[in-house]
Design goal:
- β8, α8 and β9 form a beta-alpha-beta unit.
- This protein is globular.
- By secondary structure, the protein is an alpha/beta fold.
- The chain contains 9 helices and 10 strands.
- The two termini are 33 Å apart.
- Strands 1, 4, 5, 6, 7, 8, 9 and 10 form an 8-stranded parallel beta sheet that branches.
- The protein binds zinc ion.
């Protein structure tokens, strides 16, 4: 109820020469109702439906579904920074999900898959704007071991199989080896356990999930799905991400962060 409508109500009551009692009752009713209306107002922000886990692939001057331009990425990072978002990693999410560890008030997870050469532009920009990010790397990623250690120091590296097959097309044993050998390769480089993983092409089924889990992964990410709520609805082996479509304007990017769907 707005001030205008309260005023209108009072004017109508006065015009009708209502008794002082009726007027007092109307004012009391409005006073009681205002806090109720205020409480019922919809909440705006990530808390409404979850944490944005953003998925990038390439950063080039040829935008498409899986490629954002350096300028677009920079605009998104500036918007995130100016609106109070703080970068978290899969380890932060795991700690929050498993033991209720505190997260920043406005968390965002920036993830990039495949280790394409243009990933260096992504690294430069996220570091410039102070965001920790996560890097999902197959064994053929275009990064040196030294660069992988630097990525792990500034954010977190995660598994993405040896050869990037759609795991749904493989046997259990083949899927297991794809995930396990990739994990061992990464762990030997960074010197600690790697337990986060993304399904190539987002492809997974019950057999794949079992193979990924048996290969030592504890958090597995999809390639779509929207925002991620940390509650009983989150499946640690099928965590949603939002693909950042390079063909869409920043208004759409902002709408997704505010809970819109269909990005
Ligand atoms: Zn991939």
């Amino acid at each position: 109820m707005t001030t205008w409508s309260v005023g209108a109500l009072l004017r109508r009551l006065t015009a009708a020469r209502a008794s002082r009692f009726a007027l007092a009752m109307a004012i009391a009713f409005v006073s009681l109702c205002l806090p109720l209306f205020a409480k019922a107002a919809p909440e705006i922000g990530w808390g409404r439906s979850g944490i944005p886990i953003l998925l990038y692939h390439q950063v080039l001057d040829t935008p498409d579904t899986y490629t954002v331009t350096p300028a677009a990425l920079e605009s998104q990072l500036i918007w995130l920074r100016d609106n109070g978002y703080v970068g978290i990693t899969p380890s932060d999410l795991k700690a929050a999900y498993e033991s209720g560890a505190a997260l920043p008030e406005k968390p965002v997870m920036l993830t990039i898959d495949d280790g394409w050469p243009s990933e260096s532009t992504f690294v430069e920009l996220v570091n410039r704007y102070g965001f920790r990010a996560s890097y999902f790397l197959p064994n053929f990623a275009h990064v040196t071991e030294e660069e992988i250690r630097a990525l792990d120091a500034s954010g977190e590296v995660c598994g993405h199989t040896v050869t990037h097959p759609n795991l749904e097309t493989l046997s259990y044993d083949e899927a297991y080896q794809e995930v396990y050998q990739n994990r061992i390769w990464l762990e030997n480089i960074v010197g600690h356990a790697v337990t986060c993983f993304a399904y190539p092409f987002g492809g997974y089924n019950d057999t794949v999930v079992q193979a990924v889990r048996d290969a030592g992964m504890q958090m597995a990410f999809l390639a779509w799905g929207g925002l991620t709520a940390i509650d009983g609805s989150m499946d640690p082996m099928a965590i949603r991400r939002v693909n950042v479509n390079g063909a869409y304007p920043i208004e759409d990017f902002i709408a997704v962060l505010n809970g819109a769907v269909g990005y």
